[in-house]
From TrEMBL:
Residues 250-315 form the Protein FecR C-terminal domain. This is FecR protein domain-containing protein. The keyword Ion transport does not apply. The chain crosses the membrane at residues 81-99. It comes from Chitinophaga parva. Pfam families: FecR, FecR_C. One of its GO terms (molecular function) is sigma factor antagonist activity. Keywords: Membrane, Transmembrane, Transmembrane helix. The keyword Transmembrane helix applies. Residues 116-206 form the FecR protein domain.
Length: 321
């Protein structure tokens, strides 16, 4: 797809800020998919250099930070690297990574990615901190020693138990939000970073910030960062509810049926649609054990308001009034 730099720059900024319309999102996706035939542009790089450069650029673009972000050490198709390089050039962040003199930074190569497509996964980090990854989530972290800088990049949802280290903070990057702690337990929900990121503290204290906005949370407090406005709001909450998923439970308190559906879709690998906005926006409070089947969960949720549901083709359910 041919597109001039001004138009591409406008679309990419909207895409990163979460303000792009459906049509504009489709334009970016079409442009991104058009890079299958550009393999020749990367011939001068070794396989290791391609991996390192593409991941540095993609991760930097995704999190929209001003300094170089670490890499995922995973293989990707050539079009991803080419698209990342073009995006970097358009947005003015590619100078340092000029292809003619590219030498991967050791710290970039030392980073890895752990993902979790299904189930709940417990991961021990190099500093002995622990993170539980929820369904369809991933985390990027350094394999460096215990005294190295402690930073992770989260996509999806993770529950962290951070090992205390004097004068060595632990930082979680989730979309445009940064969470910094010395030692504590907290949950980060970054499934929809273009819309919002939620941080809930179980114990200890964390600093939450994005740009100039900063706030501090203690046990049973929650911060919600709204990406579109850049604002951070806080509220008191029962933090244990937000980490119940680490034991397989589903706990919802005054959550919309739409938000609940997104969690059910990830857990049960299904699709849920609604017959009307009234049904989608209904507020529900309920909890379910790990082995509860989807039909049982939907049946109990529907019973609260007298809703109904039906199963359609391709593992799709429709909830209606």
């Amino acid at each position: 797809m041919e597109m001039n730099n001004n138009r591409l720059k406008e679309l990419l900024h909207k895409y990163l800020e979460g303000s792009a319309s459906e049509q504009e999102v489709r334009e970016v996706d079409d442009w991104y998919r058009s890079f299958d035939t550009h393999a020749g542009l990367t011939d001068q790089l070794t396989a290791s250099e391609k991996d390192t450069l593409e991941q540095l650029l993609l991760l930097r673009i995704r999190t929209a930070i001003s300094e170089a972000a670490p890499a995922r050490v995973v293989r990707m198709r050539t079009r991803h690297w080419v698209a990342a390089a073009v995006v970097a050039a358009v947005l003015g962040i590619g100078g340092y990574y000029a292809v003619q003199r590219m030498h991967p930074a050791p710290q970039a190569i030392a980073l890895t990615e752990t993902s979790n497509r299904s189930g709940i996964r417990r991961i021990s980090l190099p500093d002995s901190s622990v993170v539980w990854l929820n369904f369809d989530s991933k985390v990027h972290f350094s394999q460096a020693g215990i005294h190295a800088a402690r930073e992770v990049w989260l996509e999806g949802e993770g529950y962290f138990e951070v090992r205390p280290q004097d004068n060595n903070a632990f930082t979680v990057h989730a979309g445009k939000l940064d969470v910094q702690v010395l030692g504590t337990s907290f949950n980060v929900d970054a499934y929809s970073p273009a819309r919002a990121v939620t941080v809930t503290v179980v114990n200890g204290k964390v600093a939450v910030g994005a740009g100039a906005g900063r706030t501090t949370l203690t046990a049973n407090q929650q911060a919600v960062f709204t990406t579109a406005t850049g604002g951070i709001t806080t509220q008191a909450i029962t933090a244990a509810d937000c980490s119940a998923w680490t034991t397989g439970q589903l706990v919802f308190r005054k959550a919309t049926f739409q938000d609940i559906a997104m969690r059910l879709e990830r857990r049960y690998n299904t699709h849920i649609r609604f017959g009307s906005p009234e049904v989608a926006n209904a507020l529900l409070t309920a909890s379910f054990e790990e082995r509860e089947p989807l039909t049982g969960v939907l049946g109990k949720l529907c019973a609260i308001y007298g809703f109904k549901y039906k199963e359609e083709a391709n593992a799709t359910y429709v909830v209606y009034k």
